[in-house]
Structures are given as structure tokens and as C-alpha cells.
Hints:
Largest sheet of chain B: 7 strands, antiparallel
Largest interface: A-B, 43 and 38 residues
Oligomer: heterodimer
Order of helices and strands of chain B: HEEEEEEEEEHEEEH
Distance between the termini of chain B: 65 Å
Low-confidence stretches of chain B: none
Number of domains of chain B: 2
Order of helices and strands of chain A: HHHHHHHHHHHHHHHHHH
Radius of gyration of chain A: 26 Å
Number of helices of chain B: 3
Strand content of chain B: 35-45%
Number of strands of chain A: 0
Number of helices of chain A: 18
Structural class of chain A: mainly alpha
Distance between the termini of chain A: 26 Å
Radius of gyration of chain B: 20 Å
Strand content of chain A: under 5%
Mean pLDDT of chain A: 85
Amino acid sequence: MKVRKEITELLNAGVITQETADRITQYYDSKTEPPSNKLVIVFGILGAILVSLGIILILAHNWDSLSRSVKTVIAFIPLLAGQAICGYTLLKKEESVTWREAGSAFLIFSVGACIGLLSQIYNVSGNLASYLFTWTLLCVPIIYVMRSSMASLLYIAGITWYACEIGYWGNSTHESYLYWGMLLLVLPYYYMLYRKRSEGNFFTFHNWFIPLSVVIVLGTVAKDVGDLMFIAYVSLFGLLYLIGNTPFIRDQKIRNNGYLMLGSLGTVGILLVLSFNFFWSDLIDKDFSEKNVFSSVEFLVSALLTLAALSLLIYQKMRQKPLEIKPAELIFLLFIGVFIIGLSSLLSVVLINLLVLGVGILTIREGARENHLGILNYGLLIVTALVICRFFDTDISFVLKGILFVGVGLGFFFANYWMMKKKRVT
Amino acid sequence: MNKTILIPAFILMVVLQLYIPVRMISYKESILTGGKEFKFRTAPIDPTDPFRGKYITLSFEANSFHVANAEEWNQGDPIFVMLGEDEKGFVKINSISKDQPVDDENYVKASIDYIVTDTMSYVTVEYPFTRFYMEESKAQGAQDVYRETARDTNQVAYALVSIKEGDAVIKDVMIDDVPISEVVKQLQEKPQ
């Protein structure tokens, strides 16, 4: 570990005492996962999932020659085996991450196999959503009893699928609200992971899975006033971006900070989509007075997300000295203004384009200030994407488009050259 | 975590994970053994469920009911379907209702699939037993047999359904009173 090297160096130089060195080492030891071989964990989980999926497939063959009672007994064998493995793990191998994670993964799939098989034996027509609902809920205890991150990740994936099944793919019902309650069930485990294992890979996976799941499912609340969902999504991405900048996760590597990346990519993505004419020329023709906009669920969700993001923004800025504005931080507030203008004027198209350009330039500036080549090029990519989007608009002359492309290309070249030079000097 | 909490929590988890499937079994078994049998005439297609294997989807002839006022009914709403028998012993719909019947035992819980409003208004019923699981190798054969029955009007296909207090479980799907798995098996054994 890098820290150990530093500690030895500091110790040799006489900067810290042996006692301080021990305490630092102890602190880092408590934060990282136990020294279990990562590869063993990965293959353990993979093996467990493959074996259990194989069992599901074999049983799904639906052996005609077996009687109903024999099939029923067989349905319970994987489940009992999974429970036995987990029980043994708790009693004898409690400290082994590999045993806990692999055992939990196996148990989760055998729970699914058991209820799936029973549905088959009794020809239950219940849709996939109700099946996923029972399955995921039966797996919640596994997360806490086994303290298994794999169980938690599979659970998040399961409830996301469930919500999509009901909200996007279902025919008449829109009641995916249960998802939000189900998501709450996993948060205590997430918090525990943050407190005890914030350096571990599983924490990083959660930092991606949880925001990604919310981003996917948020759209299921849309009903009649779908246009408002753009505000909801921009505010959600704003909120994620702000969460990504909180002390809770700020110090992680950027690629490990799912909140920051999803927030930023999502914001830029939506703005780019809306930088075209079509959405706004549609919006201006719409009559919102007939629909009860203010009592719609879309309005409620948008308002809640905006308020949450705004509160977090104010809280962060009050504690920040000196005050600094991150590139995509204020977009969600500005976007609401642009949206309201867009109800009566096409000026919004211009404003959105300026917003994207602003985010791009601020990102480039941040990259330059932090000496971070990745951030710098991300900013340049945002500007490039904007230019490419405008390339498709026919009402800009070829000469102007050409100049824009040449300009951005040169920008890439010089910005990177300048940064390299600066890095070499320092 | 403390083992004095962890072990009871584990036992609780195991009991819960066993209780839900066992309850499901005992409930379905009680319908199969204590329910009344009905014959629903059918016509099917053949999809796959990723977790539960191959099945044939059944649609039933007795699936629509004439209503006077279509506005009273909404798509997707739960309904109770009162069942009767025609002269050949197959199910016909006597009436539909939004409220659970108290005096009539021959009913099944279903939902409204869609509503037809034309010169005559119809409510189309979606029964909760539209899947019949087959052994993987027989599902395709079963579909072929069904197509054959649809063409050959002398053959009769129906689902044997056990119903108790409004809940239903399919017992078997029959072609001319022979279980479909038997029909497919005979066909597969027959030299081509």
C-alpha cells in the first residue's frame, strides 16, 4: 500500500513517532477490506452465480416424467443448500468475505429458483413484476444477516428491474411507487458500508448502482405531463452532482464517484438533447392550462428534487470558504428559468446552447486550475458535442460550421499542449 | 455483529424464505383438491419465460361479456366472473360484477383486458390462468398440436381449471379429453 511507504519515509525522517505511525497504519487497516484475495472473492461470487443460474435452467426444463410432489421437493433442494451454506458460513467462516459473498449470491438465486419452480408447477400466470417483487423482498434479510455487498447489489438490480417492468413495460398499471420504499431498505447497509469500508471496491460499486438505479426508475413516475420530467431529471442530475461534491464521497477518484459522473454526464446529455429546436417548438404549442399541472405527480417530483438540490447547494455554499462554483452546479436552477421562458418564447433554444457552452468552458477552466488532463478534455468534449449537434442544424452556414470545427480542434491541441508543458515545468 | 443477534436473525430469515413458498404450495394444493373443476375452451401461442421455462399461453373462448353501459367499466380493473356451463359442459360467462358474489360459489377473480364499444359493448376478460408450463422439448410440439386442432374442427381443446373461492389453478390442458403432454409424446414417438 502506498500509505505504508509514506509512513516509513516519515518515520525515517523523524517527522512522526513510532506510536503515530502505528496508529495511522491501524486506521487504514480498519478502513480497507480484510486482506482477502480480491480475485478469490470475484471468482467465488462468479462461480456461485453460474452454478445457481445453471440449476435454474436445468429445473426450468420442467421434467414431465416427475410427479408434482417430486418436483416440489426438488424445488426446495437448492434453497435448503443455499441456506445451509450461509448457516455454515455464519458459524465457521464469518470473517471470510469470499464465503459470505459467494454463499449469499448462491442463496439469492436459489430463492428465485424455488419460487420460479413453484410458479411453474402450479402454472401461476402472475407476471414477471410480481415474481421479482416476492424474490427481492425475500432477499432483503440476506443483505443484513450475511453483511453481503453482493446481495445488496443484486437486490438493487432486482428492484430496478421490477420498477421498469411495472413502470415502463407494464400495460396499464403505473404503480412503481413501491420501488422507493424498497430502495430505502438497502440504505442502512449502504451507510454501514460507508462507515466501515469506504475504501473498498464494494462501496464504489454502490456509489454507481444506487444513483444509476434512481436515474433509470425516475422516469416511471411520468403520467400526463411528461414534459415536466425534464425539470425532474435536470434537478436529479444536479442533486447527484452536488452529492458527488460532498465530503462523503468527494475524495474518491473521479471514476469511483458515480454521483459526480452521472450528475455531470446526465446534465450535459439532457442539455445537449434540448439544444435542438424540436422540443421547444413543441412545448410552445402545448396548452398546460387544461391539465392540472400543479397537482400532477411530475410537478411534485420536480419540486421535491429541486428543493432537495437547492437545500444541499445552499448548505454547501454556506460552509465553503472561499466560495467557488463548480461547472454544473447551478444548471438545475437556471434550467427552470429557461423552461418557463420556453413556454412562451423560442429564446430558450439559444439559452440552452449558452448553458452547454458555459458548462464546457467552466469545466475546461476547472481542469486547467486543478491540473487535471481528464477534466480539461471532458470540457473540450462538451464543447465538441455542442458543435457537432449544431452541425446538424441546417440554418447555419457551412463556413461558420467550418470555422467552429477548426476552432474547437485547435482548442484541443493547444489546451493539451499547454497543460503538458505546465505539468513538465512543475 | 454480535452472534446472539445474528443467529436468531439468520433462523428468522430461513423460516421466512421457507414459509412463503410453503404457503404458496398449500394454498394451490387446497384449490386443486378442494376446488370445483371447469372446462375452458382454448387457443394458444408459445413464448418463453426466462426464469420459469417454456409455457404455452392460453386464450379462452368464453372471454367476453355483453354490457349495457361501457362507461361503467375500466381497463385493468379487477372483476368477478360468474361461471356457468353450456350444453357441452364448457364454461360460459353468466355475468360479471365489480363486487364479490356472496350467494354464488361458481365465480373466478379476473381483470378487464379491454372494452369494445361498438353498436354492442363488450367487456373482454383476462383470466389469471393464461400459462401452462410444458417440458421444454414438448412446448413446440404442443403448439403444433394446437394449430392442428384449430384447423380441424372435430377436435376440441380445453383447459381443465380447478376453482375455489374465486382463485384458480390449471390442472391440465386437454385435446379431445387426452392431456396435451400425452398427445405430443405420441406424436414424437410416431415415426416421421
